[in-house]
Amino acid sequence: MVKSGTIILNTAARFLMPLQLMFSIFLLLRGHDEPGGGFIAGLVAAGAFTLYLFAFGVSATKEVLRMVDPRDLIGVGLLLGMISVVPAWFMGQPFLTAQWWTIPVIDFKASTPLIFDVGVYFAVLGSVTGMVMTLMEVDKDEP
Amino acid sequence: MIQFAVLMGFVLAALSPMLNHWFGQRASLVLALFPAGLAAWLALQAPEVIENGSLLLEWQWVPSLGISLTFLLDSLSLLFGLLITVMGACVLVYAGGYLKDHPDLARFHIALLAFMVSMLGLVLADGLLTLFVFWELTSITSYLLIGFNHADINARKSARQGLFVTVAGGLALMAGLVLLGIASGSWSLAEILDQEADLREHALYTPMLICLLLGAFTKSAQFPFHFWLPNAMAAPTPVSAYLHSATMVKAGIYLLARLHPELGGTAMWVGVLSVVGATTMLVGAFLAIHHTNIKKLLAYSTIMALGTLTMLLGIGTEYAMTAFVTFLLAHSLYKGALFMVAGILDHETGTKDVTQMGGLRSVMPLTATIALVAALSLAGVPPLLGFIGKELMLESVLGADSFRTLLVLFAFLASILTIAVAFIVALRPFYGKRHQTPLEPHEAPPGMLLGPALLALGSLLLGLMPAVLGADALLTATATAISGQTVEVALSLWYGINVALIMSIVSLGLGFLLFRRWDSVRGKLSVLAPVMRHGPEAGYESMMNGIVHFSEWQTRLLQNGYMRNYILVMLATLIALIGNSILLRHSPVFAVDLDVRFHEVVVAGTMVMGALFATISRSRLGAVVSVGIMGFSIALIFVLFSAPDLAITQLLVETLTVILLVLVLFRLPRFSNLSTSLERIRDGVVAAMVGILICLLIMTSWSIQQFEPISTYMIENSAPLAYGRNIVNVILVDYRALDTLGEMFVLALAAIGVIAMLKLRNNTKTTDSSKVAAKEPYDG
């Protein structure tokens, strides 16, 4: 039942999706200090793909995603979440203690909470996009 | 790091499909190196263990929580460890022949290795909870092994029965171990065994003992829980040879022996263990001669042996302790060998029925010899180890302090029956007239003969020379460890002419007589069949049926597939719980100072309007939109109270919810009124009550301040400790990161569930019937 959209929606989606994705990454990176964070950013990114889905349908969106299956993103997110647990072990500190490093040249604060937040981002993005996409795929097959 | 070596077995189990791929049929031999290596290590520790009593091998695991994986290696666990590893190596080699060319050999290796490691962990564990974990692991892995032929409904049923009985016992055991931990104030077996305080005087002694005994009796197939063991013969024979001779079923016996120094000797212990043990012994031996299936014969005789061991622990004298360890070792050796012989017979002739076999001695001379040696040990004929075990057993029964007459009578009858079983197993298939069998029999391959030959040789050697390789020293040390006092009973084939010897000789004669008349006796015993049907197994069956009926009933009541009923139940529970605590425990606060601005009233009013319209709307889209209005108003409230993160999240979630709702809206059935007006009133009342209660809860919790709010701490420390100024995010990824990690998994599971269910429906759509299913609403 959800077919490709109107000209206005199509044109808007083509421009809005990259913007939304960039905005989501912006939200993800600033999240620790300003409003934002992995969960919100993941939802925004999922919104971007949903918009694209509505405008161009499932197969076109799959092409945009290339080899990436949203379901795999869920796994990537969980994996990143688990990876962020590990560094504390090497430092001999309790499970999940945050570790902070400064990358010298670009003066970027890297940390395990950031890795964790990226994990949340992917898990949310993968879950929501996966669900919406599957729902639309089911629709497509309906007589 | 023996812990590491033992736990490597799990890794090896995981890798065994790869080994199967590389080595093919020889994988069994390669895998057998693992238990063989462990056996060698254990044997090397023996002198030190016998010398010093016990070794405590500690491996700190989570030091900050005081969690360690500690192994307690004393003579008892060493003896069991040696049995497990040596038998394990034999069984692996044997299985390589028995399951040759079996497509699922790799799966067998995985389960068997996992079981072996669990069993080793069980006997070596020092921590009570570690012991429990390994105990449950043996139940689970043995379930996989019994149900190995999963295409057979009988195997599945037996595996399930074994699992239910042992896991139910496992629950009791857990309670018992926790009580033991509380009563003794320690979770380490070594400390419990060392401490001065007498647990027998403790107020928790009786409940603790009952729970522990339930666990041990179910695992070790004591009457009336014995019925699962013969059914477990549905397993492939290597499994029976391993699990049902020396390992799994002896776990309960091990536990009793382990705790005997601390808990044994009371009137309750002596009474329960001697009577239950003796009953099991006689029932097992009596039921054995009903059967012509060689594996069932052996299974019931195993029940007899397990009963004997329990009884000996109950008697608890010096003689009984020596008898216990000797009988334990002797039984493991001969029963393992006999099970393997049974497997050879089944494998070569194609039948398990001993009455269908005969005269096989000429074609299988080696198997016949092994069977004869092992069976003579079972019968207790000199010069085999079984004879020493039986002599000591009869001696200790004669010296029992309580129930002496009963025990002597039961032991005498059981030994006659056991001797008959031994002759049936060893003579019937191999001597007499040749019978036509489904397969043309010939001698088993060397791989299958090696294991039973070794075990039979062990029975013979240890009988002739108990001192060989320091075996008697280990047995005496074990007896000492179990009894708690020094035991000095030497093992010997000759204790002089005494009552025990005379009983032995008489029972041997009567047993042989019974063997000769077995066919007619079996015919006469068949009149008992109607009585047998009302045994403990019938009780188990009716209990299981009862559970199924009960769960059907409660599923119909609670899990009926109607969304509205689920919500009703949940909300009613909420009302009951919150209402109870808010009205009875705290006095609700009704008066609140309202300081509201005009725009706040407008937002709140919009929400109320949205909610009202959603309930009375006659179109589904209208309802969705008005619920959406409520959601956006909530976001607005977050904005008004300066919570930008929450507002953004609320907006995004609300948007995506509307999108998802739109996607599913079209597949829902036509909007119609299903409930009567009475039901609508009821729903309205429930909804109103929930609303009022939540409102009261918020107002009350505002006025009750029992603790300093944690938000102060979080606000103060978010920048200095967590290097972040956005507290919401810091809470999510740092303060409460573990919660978030859990929620990520929940989210992932939910998404996978949704995707899987939708895909599943998608796939079934190709069939005709699913069309109807797709049209039918899930909640209608």
Automatic annotation (TrEMBL), chain A:
Its main location: membrane. It is a multi-pass membrane protein. The keyword Isomerase does not apply. The keyword Ribonucleoprotein does not apply. GO terms for cellular component: plasma membrane. Keywords: Cell membrane, Membrane, Transmembrane, Transmembrane helix. Coiled coil: none annotated. It is found in: Cell membrane. It comes from the Bacteria. Belongs to the CPA3 antiporters (TC 2.A.63) subunit B family. This is Na(+)/H(+) antiporter subunit B.
